[in-house]
Write a structure and sequence with these properties.
By secondary structure, the protein is an all-alpha fold. It has seven helices and no strands.
Length: 226
């Protein structure tokens, strides 16, 4: 009897939508940072506060940075919920191959050291569950590239925003903005790879789910004939 497994495409769309929104706001923040970087390269504008282009750019940058942080948290939440739903499928397809308990779907993002490898372990196990048993292998170059991009983006130039706030000269502010723009580019790359990984896993498990055979009760044949 063929088992029935529902692949969470709707949750995948929510997760990818949140990640895409984060990437778009990050791109907008990077463009505003570039505009501010260009303004600081020339003579500082003199005039009323409300008409100062540098003040206007700084206001947009701060607002977009706040939205960016909120969307990042939303994307992480949606991605974790999607992972939990995918884990339900993997438990049916290959329960013994899931190496971490569900609680690590939350703790794995926040506990130091564990956050460097636990989320990747979940994705590796899901990836392997989507293959026939003789071909199950954890890991793939795509997953490695994705996770490295996430780690680099998460740890690159964490102090750049603080450096920008503490800058006392145009050159110091421009240096901090260069770091921020590079960090934004890394975040966008990590977001794009995250979306690709989500849909690759969805497709793999969709192909694997219809091949799952539910156990059938087998009764011993009668030893005597009536």
């Amino acid at each position: 009897m063929t088992g029935s497994v529902r692949v969470p495409r709707g949750q995948a769309r929510f997760a990818c939508g949140a990640i895409a929104a984060f990437a778009l706001v990050t791109l907008a923040a990077g463009l505003v940072a570039w505009h501010k970087y260009q303004l600081l390269a020339g003579p500082l504008a003199r005039g009323p506060y409300v008409d100062n282009p540098l003040v206007e750019a700084d206001t947009y940058f701060r607002n977009l940075t706040g939205w960016r942080t909120a969307l990042l948290l939303m994307a992480l939440l949606q991605f974790s919920i999607w992972l939990a739903n995918m884990r339900d499928i993997a438990d049916v397809l290959w329960r013994q191959g899931q190496r971490r308990r569900r609680a690590w779907l939350i703790f794995g993002w926040v506990i130091p050291v564990a956050q460097l490898f636990v989320p990747k372990m979940f994705v590796n196990d899901l990836w392997a569950a989507g293959r026939p048993e003789p071909q199950r292998r954890r890991g793939h170059p795509l997953l490695t590239a994705w996770w490295l991009s996430v780690l680099v983006a998460a740890n690159a130039y964490n102090d750049a925003s603080d450096d920008l706030k503490k800058a006392v000269s145009a050159s110091q502010a421009r240096h901090a903005l260069r770091q921020i723009m590079l960090s934004d580019g890394l975040d966008i790359c990590a977001a794009a790879l995250s979306i690709i990984v989500v849909w690759q896993l969805i497709r793999r498990l969709e192909r694997a789910a219809p091949t799952m055979i539910a156990p059938v009760e087998v009764r011993p044949a009668s030893l005597t004939k009536s």
